[in-house]
Amino acid sequence: MARRERVVRMSVEQPLWRAVTAYRVGTMVYAVLVFVFGRERYERPWIAVAFLAALGVWTLVTLPKVANAAGCTKRFLVADLAVALTGILLTPLADLDARSTDHPTLPTIWTAGTALAWALRGGWRWAGFASSLVAVANIIERGSPSRDTLHNVLLVWVASIAIGYVVEVARASERTLARALEIEAATRERERLARDIHDSVLQVLAMVQRRGTALGGEAAELGRMAGEQEVALRTLVAGGLTRTSHVSEDESEGAVVRIVEVPDAEETEGAELDLRTLLAPRAGARVTLADPGAPVVLPAPAARELAAAVGAALDNVRAHAGDGARAWILVEDWGDEVIVTVRDDGPGIPDGRLAQAEGEGRMGVALSIRGRLRDLGGTAELISIPGQGTEVELKVPRAPRERGKAGAK
After folding, report:
1. Are 133 and 81 in contact (CB under 8 A)?
2. Where is the composition biased (Basic and acidic residues) (predicted)?
3. Rounded distance, CA 289 to CA 224, Å?
4. Which of 11, 211, 232, 336 is deepest in the core (most CB within 10 A)?
5. Helix H segments across 105-146?
């Protein structure tokens, strides 16, 4: 029975949202208690009562908004910040001596919860914006920036920005961890499938190949086809790179053909591609692909052009090296450049044959291979010894170079 791997995503910021929720309720109660025990100093207590009543209702009604990032919308954050700023600016109207005696504002430390909500929702930049507005409101409320006011403002500003930065780092780490868990689960599943296939399908195909070759005749042809499918299946299982859309049967050849989905140019415009995903479908019974085992990431246009150049080289092998020739594709990632080597065991190219072909107007190597690499700022080197096969070395730099610089080298 097949097992299904489950990847559990962990939210490192959810406990912070719960902490902000508790903080808002606690500081709302604290603001009410500060007023109750110091109500004798308010010349207009009805202003304070009205604001604190509105603050209590707002805090309790909006608890679902600060339960998670999805509920904490931009519109809510703006309204929440407006409530905090209104409470700060109303303080001198309710307490006429607030400026001269450094009495607390009406919302007191509840305003810090607003800055923290901005930090959790948008990171340190949003936190800096909200805490800066709170700082300006506090300075306007005091009339002049006293030492205590600056101290409180700086504390809120630094704390909210620090928490916003920590949240951004935590989110990036969470995404990295989730991706690593997905890759690990996919790798385990692929290894399990590889074991099952090796113990059943691949062994049957290998047996059909051996028995068909021994029997000869039509059975030999069946054995040859089984051998080709064994190689193709081994490549697919070992790489696990391509997405198979469907499998069909070729009536003319009597073989099973694997139809592979290739990323569309419009979907990958401006993105990056793993070169291995474009080269994996080219492997088969007579073409062996060797790659680093890790993603070889290139800009999408460069990856497609390099894969097309490899395809052109393989076309030359099929056209000029004979039906029985084998080819090998070697992918090397050197950090600053990617090198792909295509080698075959054909008869090689006689001296002067390439120049003669270009003179006759057959520009396959010149345009399909060298032209593509030149446009990418890379190079294509062809080495062929008569009787010993041909080797095409394709080099593409990681960062595109100007044609002038590439041509000067």
Report:
1. yes
2. 392-409
3. 20
4. 232
5. 110-122, 124-142
Q: Which long-range contacts link 196-200 to residues 24+ away (Cβ below 8 Å)?
A: 197/233, 197/237, 198/237
| CA-only gyration radius of the chain, Å | 35
Q: Using CA atoms, how far apart are residues 2 and 97, in angstroms rounded to an integer?
A: 75
Q: What's the CA gap between 165 and 182, in Å, rounded?
A: 26
For residue 65, which of 53, 83, 86, 52 has the smallest C-alpha distance?
Answer: 83
Kindly state the tokens that stand for 167. Answer: 């949240």
Specify whether the backbone of 377 is left (phi greater than 0), alpha (psi in -120 to 50) or beta: left
Domains of the chain: 1-240 (no CATH), 263-408 (3.30.565.10)
pTM value is 0.48
Task: Kindly state the tokens that stand for 72.
Answer: 């904490």
d(CA 49, CA 175): 46
